[in-house]
Specification:
- 9% of the residues lie in helices and 53% in strands.
- With 730 residues, it is mainly beta.
- The strands form 4 sheets. It has a 24-stranded mixed sheet that branches. The protein has a 4-stranded antiparallel sheet with strand order 3-2-5-6, with no helix packed on it.
- A hairpin with a 2-residue loop joins strand 21 and strand 22.
- The longest helix is centred in the first third of the chain and has 21 residues.
Length: 730
């Protein structure tokens, strides 16, 4: 299948190239927008010479075909806006794009105020609060959707949230199908769940006038790579990417369709460096991975102001030899197959003159299967090598439904948004972690003598099915206090199953443009955010609750039979439990910032962020041995209780510099962040440090992996891994 797609893509690429060489006519696509960057529907566009005239469609576009290459004049007019003429517009053979921005008409006094530069600069919904990439700038982004997503994340800075047509998750569309990319900095909007510095909103465009297609391919190898100093030979690396996309009208100016297929065939090499009983060992292991993605989208204009959109995505990826490298020998590897399916539908448009509504629905299914190379017990020899099975097998999956509706109301000085967001999902897991057990040896000498320090194993059935739902309700009002000052006030309430709390989150902010030119904007705000209890963390807690699976620990076991040791001590089984009265983690944040428009289309942003977290989730061993080495419950081992007791603190200064020069094919984005952060927890599955821990006690954590021993060099923990005790305790 992959070879067939590559062949078809190559043929289409060659035919497209040959077509372009003989083509002499031109197409001109004119997009008409208002001062905020929103498209204008029904604008009248006339092109001369030829005196061709069209009205813009639902996406604000008018497309003129079969033009002779040359220079044209473009006249655009629309009710409520000033007419504009673009003279001497050069049109080359092939496709040409031109964006025309209309100013608000000067006749009405209220509209004249709307054109004030300070009013525009202080409006959170205008482009003064955003960096907007035009189609010419989008053309300069990477062709590969994954690389483009990485580039947009780098441009936006840390904590950025990407949305495509209002949806999160899934894959980005090909850049040839993207109409606009907007970087927004309204951090305290009530319609967002998570705190973030910048949100990236991506809008696709329908092919309403003619069919267009594109192919792309890329190849990267390790020819110029250097050899890893620890590898016996230079490891090979290869990355092949291929793709094809097409879009066009099914019903001209009413219904369009878009299709894209892309894939990746790649591998890299991981170096294994270990000390075996037979001596030094080094090897290079190839780690292949393949991905195939398919996306289909249909857009239909119900009326001049209403559009319905449907989309389907499917992605499948495979990866082999995961878990191999460093101390981990090749036998520790495992393969992974992941399949994701997404169905989306949305209806957007205006209702009368004062209302605008956007309804979004999504169903997302995910399936992950893991297969190890070996099911043998794991053997971990500290600071030497790791052998045996990966201790990971089975599968997991989820099915999640998402529903959201936003209603915008314009009423005088008020711009109100109210809405609802609902996520409901079913999750299932049969993942076996540490099912055949893990032996831990303190040294190579201990391994040679057959004296492991510990043996751990998760027993029981891992089969778990859970359901989880979360709901967000919000209302927000952007109040125009003065022409240079906007005050924003909002309230959001969140509810989640398995966790309590009223969870009311008030938020507010101001945007002020102090100078007449409108090139300086001062923003400040504060608000409360709540975090969700991750479904996977809850699922793993249920798996290890003592009824599905138990954590078995043996000190000084025998080897290879852990029960055959003369000094073997089997510790009571451990488990995980949830504390009563769990609440959603809370984040309180305040921000102040300044944005300055500099000469030469350069924009500088500076802001300070102060954030404090409370009621964060962490695991605490409530059955830890006391000073006399006795546990509160002698019949149980470590009882890791997930509690809402952790805290965090973040203070940072962020600087962002942007320059856009599409005529010079230059776009520069630079981000600098200086900050300090502290956190009491990594995740609900990580145990918090005990106040008075005994000097050396064997304890299993929430997922069957004990805490690190202070004598052991720090490295990544593995499920079922155990540390060597200084002495043996029951």
């Amino acid at each position: 299948m992959k070879t067939f797609i590559q062949t078809v893509a190559a043929i289409l690429f060659l035919s497209t190239t040959a077509n372009a060489q003989t083509r002499t006519d031109a197409t001109l696509r004119v997009t008409v927008v208002d001062p905020s960057g929103a498209v204008i529907v029904g604008a009248h566009v006339r092109v001369t010479p030829g005196d061709a005239a069209l009205d813009t469609g639902p996406r604000g576009e008018a497309s003129f075909t079969a033009l002779e290459p040359g220079r044209y004049s473009i006249h655009v007019e629309s009710a409520g806006f000033e007419a504009r003429d673009v003279r001497d517009a050069r049109v080359r053979a092939g496709e040409n794009r031109r964006e025309v921005k209309l100013a608000i008409a000067r006749l009405a006094e209220t509209v004249q105020v709307g054109r004030d530069a300070r009013k525009r600069a202080s409006d959170p919904r205008s482009d003064a609060f955003a960096t907007v990439l035009s189609e010419a700038q989008i053309d300069e982004l990477p062709d590969d959707p994954d690389e483009m997503e990485q580039a947009l994340g780098d441009m936006a800075g840390p904590g950025a949230v990407l949305r495509v047509n209002g949806f999160r998750g899934g894959r980005l569309p090909p850049k040839s199908q993207i109409h606009q990319i907007r970087f927004r900095r309204n951090m305290f909007a009530a319609d967002t769940h998570e705190p973030g510095f910048i949100s990236v909103d991506i809008t696709t465009k329908p092919g309403l006038d003619a069919w267009r297609g594109a192919t792309n391919a890329a190849f990267r190898s390790s020819a110029l790579n250097a050899r890893n100093a620890f590898a016996p030979v230079k490891g090979a690396e290869q990355h092949q990417r291929y793709g094809f996309n097409v879009n066009g009208p099914l019903w001209k100016q009413r219904t369009s369709a878009a299709l894209s297929i892309d894939g990746v065939d790649a591998f890299d090499t991981k170096t294994v460096v270990a000390a075996l009983p037979s001596g030094y060992f080094a090897d290079s292991i190839r780690k292949p991975n393949d991905t195939l993605n398919f996306t289909a989208r249909i857009e239909h204009a119900l009326t001049k102001s209403q559009m319905v959109r449907g989309e389907m995505q499917r992605s499948r990826s495979t990866a082999d030899n995961l878990g191999v490298g460093d101390f981990d020998l090749p036998e520790r590897g495992y393969s992974q197959t992941r399949t994701d399916d997404v169905l989306r539908a949305s209806i957007v448009g205006s209702i009368g003159k004062a209302l605008y509504n956007e309804l979004r629905m999504q169903w997302q299914s995910s399936a992950l299967a893991v297969a190890p190379l070996s099911v043998s017990p794991a053997v971990l020899v500290l600071n030497a090598f790791d052998a045996g099975g990966a201790q990971l097998s089975g599968s997991r999956g989820s099915s999640v439904v998402y529903l959201a509706d936003d209603l915008d109301i314009a009423a005088g000085r008020h711009a109100i948004r109210a809405g609802v967001q609902l996520d409901a999902g079913a999750y299932r897991s049969s993942e076996l972690r540490n099912a055949t057990g893990t032996f831990t040896f303190a040294s190579l000498d201990a391994y040679a003598a057959g004296r492991p320090t510990t043996f751990t194993r998760n027993t029981g059935s891992p089969d778990v099915s859970i359901a989880q739902a979360q709901l967000g309700l919000y209302v927000q009002d952007d109040i125009r206090a003065r022409k240079d000052l906007t005050v924003t006030a909002g309230l959001r309430q969140e509810l989640q199953s398995h966790i309590g709390g009223l969870n009311l989150a008030p938020r507010g902010g101001i945007a002020w443009s102090p100078f007449k030119g409108g090139k300086t904007t001062v923003r400040a705000g504060a608000g409360i955010f709540f975090d969700w209890f991750d479904a996977q963390a809850y699922e793993q807690g249920v798996q290890l609750d003592g009824t599905h699976q138990q954590i078995e620990t043996i000190v000084a076991p025998g080897y290879p039979d852990p029960a055959a040791g003369g000094f073997a001590i089997a510790l009571p089984a451990g488990r995980v439990q949830f504390a009563p009265g769990l609440t959603q983690p809370t984040l309180k944040e305040a921000m102040g910032g300044v944005e300055q428009q500099l000469p030469g289309d350069i924009r500088l942003n500076a802001m300070f962020v102060h954030r404090r977290g409370s009621s964060l989730l962490r695991g605490v061993n409530v059955n830890a041995p006391a000073a006399n080495l006795a546990r509160p419950d002698p019949s149980s081992g470590a009882v890791t209780e997930i509690q809402s007791t952790a805290r965090s603190a973040i203070d940072l200064i962020s600087l962002n510099l942007n320059f856009a020069g599409p005529q010079q094919r230059i776009f520069v984005a630079a981000n600098y962040t200086f900050g300090r952060s502290t956190d009491d927890t990594d995740s609900p599955r990580e145990r918090a440090p005990q106040k008075t821990p005994p000097p050396c006690i064997v304890r299993a954590d929430a997922v069957g992996a004990p805490l690190q021993h202070h004598h052991r060099p720090r490295r990544q923990r593995r499920y079922g891994e155990q540390r060597p005790p200084c002495r043996r305790h029951a």
